Amino acid sequence: MNKGDNAWQLTAATLVGLQSVPGLVILYGSIVKKKWAVNSAFMALYAFAAVLVCWVGWGYHMSFGKKMLPFLGRPDISLDQKFLLDRAYVGFLPSATLVYFQFVFAAITLILVAGALLGRMNFHAWMLFVPLWLTFSYTFTAYSLWYPDGWLAKRGIIDYAGGYVIHLSSGVAGFTAAYWVGPRTNKDRERFPPNNILLMLAGAGLLWMGWSGFNGGGPFAASTDASLAILNTHVCTATSLLTWLLLDIVFFGKPSVIGATQGMITGLVCITPAAGVVQGWAAILMGILSGSIPWYSMMVLHKKIWFLKQVDDTMAVFHTHAVAGSLGGILAGFFANPKLNRIFYMVDDWQHYIGLAYGLQNGRTAAGLKQMGVQLLGIVFVVVLNVLVTSAICLLIRLVVPLRLTDEELQTGDDAIHGEEAYALWGDGEKYESKHNSLHGVEEFPQVVSKEVEMA
């Protein structure tokens, strides 16, 4: 065992946990309409607790345990003292540390899924959805991509800290679940102002700073690669935020704080699959792309593609996580440095882990193309798995309880569902009034797009 590695890994895990509780709890509770503040925050808090119980009960071993199938481990309990105190399968750590570290990743994935469902999902349906999706979706992707015996891991897929396992999965699953649950009320879709933008920024800040543990914990060691991953993470994120901000100013004339937050998130998501295996200049380029391509998909394509307009994705997780996560995975396959890959994966393998850019430079074009092919295969696997499994889970839950709240509950919000209100002393009237609605209303994107954007 290594005390320094163990101390860092426990710290990194706690930083990731803080991204969820209180980070996303605060962000969700603040970015929604006042009447949905309690429900939105509580969906995140419940998921965090429920995932932990399922994780130590069976989820960890299904994701990182003895092989049962090429894409799944054998279910088992992770509470035995001998197992927890023995060295983990990776790093110089006790298994207890790894169980905790991997738990916070599983938890935040479910909380990100919740972002697509805010403002209308039946809480009892959500209580069933969390353990089912963790068991039949998350464990499959985690084992396939991250565990050494997983079929995609054996093919050399690069997913440094969860661009596929966490962000692409949550983006696709959230969008799929939103389709089955159905939309918010027309009134909420037309007008859904944040109840507290300053608190929203506090939650976003916890999310950003917590990402030091998210990507810095990837090597399972207090290593030079962890340091590189953390710096690349923040450089890419800052670049992405500034890129999104400039696009908002150029095309809409106003610097949107909600838009900048979306740019921050897409930067964090995009760098995640590549954080410790790309150089700093590549992180800058990835930030420019993550601040522009998801911006275009959200602000332009969303209004042009009929199917996207039919699905009520409250927090736009399809754009901020599915699009940005896929983009990051592809760019990892292009920019991944062979030397950095060998440091991270601890293998001297010239057939895998070589970005296409370096393959072209070093005369190993076939290996670079092969890497890109594996990255694309990973995207297809995660998308297909989550569409099918999430749909099956929603249809199953629908047989037991309604997926969507009743019309009366949708009109009232928190008080009808929980008997509690976030701002009870304020009375029933909305206090947020503005002549200029944000261009980045949580789901409802601007109805009238400037001529410049239409031309784009």
TrEMBL record:
One of its GO terms (molecular function) is ammonium channel activity. Its main location: membrane. GO terms for cellular component: plasma membrane. It is a multi-pass membrane protein. Keywords: Ammonia transport, Membrane, Transmembrane, Transmembrane helix, Transport. The chain crosses the membrane at residues 6-29, 41-60, 99-118, 125-146, 161-182, 194-211, 265-296, 316-336, 376-401. It comes from the Eukaryota. Residues 7-423 form the Ammonium transporter AmtB-like domain. It is found in: Cell membrane. Belongs to the ammonia transporter channel (TC 1.A.11.2) family. This is Ammonium transporter. The gene is LOC105131377.
